[in-house]
Structure formats: structure tokens, C-alpha cells
Design a protein that fits this description.
This protein has helices at about 25-35, 45-50, 80-90, 100-110, and strands at about 1-5, 10-15, 20, 40, 60-65, 75-80, 95-100, 115-120, 130, 140-145, 150, 155-160. The protein is an alpha/beta fold and about 160 residues long. Strands 1, 4, 5, 6, 7, 8, 10, 11 and 12 form a 9-stranded mixed beta sheet that branches. Strands 3-2-9 form a 3-stranded antiparallel beta sheet, with no helix packed on it.
Amino acid sequence: MKLIACVDSNWGIGYKNELLVRIPSDQKFFRETTTGKVVVMGRKTLDSFPGGKPLKNRVNIVLSSAENPSVREEEIYVKNMDECLEKLKEYDREDVYIIGGASIYKQFLPFCDTALITKVDREFSADSYFPNLDKDDEWETVSESDEQTYFDNTFSFLTYKRK
């Protein structure tokens, strides 16, 4: 399983259930990487999508403790980690991407071996964070793109692997 996220210099990922920044090349990378795959998210992440609708051309698995979520055909709801991990056995682990939010990233981190991180060299006001892999001895950076710029945001695409 893989984690995929865009983080700021403090590993912030969001503020008030919105992304900190929208960078077209990061969004394109996310779309190209996850299309045709399985994405796992929390309910708040689903709610943050346009119209609260699931992502097209993907299997959308939503981890939510809500009693009676209104489920669309394109969504699979699971109530807890055990149920989610059991459901994920139906899919190739290489095709599973954890896409947030913060609590989902933290819960799934021990089960993942790769993290695809777009790191923006800027500090934003954030209220949700991705685990800082640079300070985690179990993870190492295995590749980093050249630095890129979108308006006043400098960023790089990094791949982390579990040691």
C-alpha cells in the first residue's frame, strides 16, 4: 500500500477541511497515479471533494464510523480499520493508495511501504498534518524530482520507502 499527499514544510496537509495549496502538476500527478486504482479516505476527505462526490474511475473506500452514511454506488463504506483491512484483501496491495485525511494517514502508516509526497517549500496555516517521515527512522527518501515552481510555491516530488 502507498500513501500519497501534498505537504508543506511543516508536513501540514490541510486547513478547515481544505487543501493548503492547489498546484496543477501535483493534482495531475495525483490523478494519473490513482486513476484505475483503489483510494482509501476518511469521510471528511470525501466531503472535501467537489459536491462531496467520490473520485471517478477509482474504487473509493471510505472509513467512517457514521451509523447510516448515505452511500453512492461508487463508494464502499467501512466502519473501522479491521473491516477496511479485510476489504482491501480483495485488491492488489500495489493498487491501494491512502489519500487522507490526517487520522487516516496515521492509522495506515504502519501498513504502507511507499509514500509519494509532494513537498512544498513553504509554511501555511494548517490544522491537519501528515506524519513527518523525515523524522521517522523507518522511512528514507529514495527519489526526489528537480525543484519546480508554481507562482510563489517551490515544490518537489519525493518518494519515501520503508527501510
